[in-house]
Amino acid sequence: MDKRRVVVTGVGALTPIGNTAKDLWSGLIEGKNGACMITKFDTTPFTTKFACEVKGFNPEDFIDKKEAKRMDQFTHYAIATSKMAMEDSEINLEKVDLERFGVIYGSGIGGMDTFEKQTLAYFQGGPRRISPFFVPMMISDIAAGQISILYKLKGPNYATTSACATSTHAIADAFVHIQRGTADLMVCGGSEAAITPMAIGGFNSARALSTWNDRFMEASRPFDKDRNGFVMGEGSGTIILEEYEHAKNRGAKIYAEIVGFGLTADAYHVTAPAPEGEGAYRAMRDAIREAQIELTDVDYINAHGTSTELNDLNETKAIKRLFGDHAYKLSISSTKSMTGHLLGAAGAVESIATIFALQTGIIPPTINLDEPDPQCDLNYTPKVAVKKEIKYALSNTFGFGGHNSTLLFKKYED
Question: What is this structure's pTM?
Answer without folding.
Answer: 0.98
